[in-house]
Amino acid sequence: ETSVETENDELKAELNSSIDLFFKSLRIFGCKRIILKYFLVTCSFLGTSWLLLFVLDRFHETTQIYRFFILSAGILLSGWALWNSVLYGLIYSKQFTWLAKRVRDNYRGKGERLLGIVEIIKGVHSSTDSFSPQIFEAAQQKMAKEIVAIKQDNIFPWQIIKRPLIGAIMAISIVLLIIVNFPALSINSFE
């Protein structure tokens, strides 16, 4: 058994080492997928913003105010995506409760038991409610055996990256094609 940190650095409790290892592994796995997802969304927003500017410039003279709003929309949406990347990929993914809830979304029973274990750990230091250490230890042992059946790819599947990947590839490909084929016109869109 090992002492682990949960959401609050001040809260420490004994957690089965295999459950602790599962959470650490899931945190890294989820963090990578979430950050990749929002990075691709950022690329899509910026590419789409530039493409919109390029297309509008070809059809009519865009004023500075239109250019400002289009560029601002792309930057604001990209900022939102980057914020979500930090929020979900770096902050929430470190919280055992949040991770246990993600497990519960795909593995209802196992996720509930895992969430229960996390809530007991948090409750050990934050409340006066009593619980049976023997029952808690038995629950952890049972969960440690069941945890091997939980596939991280089901919790953070590649499908969360599929749409952003397609959008980013399309936006970046079209932008690169335009830049290569119409270098003077593309530079004009940046001005």
Structure description:
Strand 1 and strand 2 (12-15) form a beta hairpin. Helices cover 79% and strands 4% of the residues. 23% of the residues are buried. Strands 1-2 form a two-stranded antiparallel ribbon. It has helices at residues 17-59, 64-91, 96-106, 108-126, 133-146, 152-155, 159-181, 183-190; strands at residues 2-5, 12-15. The chain is elongated and about 75 Å long. The protein is mainly α and 191 residues long.
Outline the low-pLDDT stretches.
1-12
Helix percent reads over 70%
Report how far apart the termini are: 60 Å
Largest β-sheet summary: 2 strands, antiparallel
The pLDDT mean sits at 86
Shape: elongated
Overall number of strands: 2
Which strand order do you get reading across the main beta sheet? 1-2
% residues in beta strands: under 5%
Order of helices and strands, N to C?
EEHHHHHHHH
- DSSP summary: helix tally: 8
Radius of gyration: 23 Å
Structural class: mainly alpha
Give the gist of this structure.
This protein is mainly α. The protein has helices at 17-59, 64-91, 96-106, 108-126, 133-146, 152-155, 159-181, 183-190; strands at 2-5, 12-15.
Topology at a glance:
Layout: E1 2-5, E2 12-15, H1 17-59, H2 64-91, H3 96-106, H4 108-126, H5 133-146, H6 152-155, H7 159-181, H8 183-190
Antiparallel strand pairs: 1-2
Helix pairs in contact: 1-2, 1-7, 1-8, 3-4, 4-5, 7-8
Descriptive terms for the model:
single chain, mainly alpha, 191 residues
